[in-house]
């Protein structure tokens, strides 16, 4: 690919990004404001908020007075207090306002049983994207001042819900039926329960305990964080060492944390700078970007697609092909995977014999093979 062709591709990419940054929101209460096929940022209203009634119809309606900061296509995952069926959105807010301990709620209008669901929450924590959900905090909520009565080694819930632990402990999932308050590892104190840092794997170590997983990360070059899962089909614990905390998604039974003393390598490159070639291999790019091989002689730092963090450069997810699309860019290849319900991963190759880029949508990651001109990634999606 000639430099001029690269510039043309980048110009097209910039145009797409620019179009996405100048979104026109619906300006009329009662007017349509999107559907589930669109990025959540596009489902917006100048007045009121964008309420998903079903996957094909979102509508601007008035904000409930007691819960004004509505988040469309967002679920406050976990921390459930009570579930109430058959309410409307404003009644869900009112129910939270009159329920002791309710700090927020998630409302889902369209469900398999045909009933609306209002999930009352003790916290706005666990914020994840979920099509069709709307979440908001109760604006007048006053947190209770009573301390947690649990002690280290006490039970703290199960896969259906987590209760409290003392400040110096966190709630460790041993199996789906038993979570327990245990001491926080000194080097990884900010544990996130039922959260997976998806992608960006450095190494997987089996047979460790939670504190050992933290220690392994602390002693491994480049390890910024980890995800630990105690219960697995093979009977072994799994400690996934990570180069980043990106790719945060819900996963029952997982615990994730950052290594508090991690210092990332400094990279002088900026987005748009050259980052190597096929002879030198990819060099560094700033956080939030990756080194895109446009042709054997020119690799460039470009921004990571929002829906596919943790891009792997020089890797082909061989096999598990779903379909192949021509003429896309890295971010539109990711986007094609995002909007295909059967797609879980993709491989993108910019330079091919026919002069067109190729985007291979995948049902899985297949067999990882070295391919200098390829990039591969996973679709980011919450797991219930």
From TrEMBL:
Annotated Apple domain residues: 188-267
Signal peptide coordinates: 1-19
Name of this protein: Apple domain-containing protein
GO molecular function, one term: cellulose binding
CDD domains from the UniProt entry: APPLE_Factor_XI_like (cd01100)
Keyword terms of this UniProt record: Disulfide bond, Repeat, Signal
InterPro entries referenced in this protein's UniProt entry, alphabetically: Apple, CBD, Pan_app
Any single GO CC term annotated in Swiss-Prot or TrEMBL for this entry: extracellular region
Biological process (GO), any one: proteolysis
Gene3D superfamilies attached to this UniProt entry: Hepatocyte Growth Factor
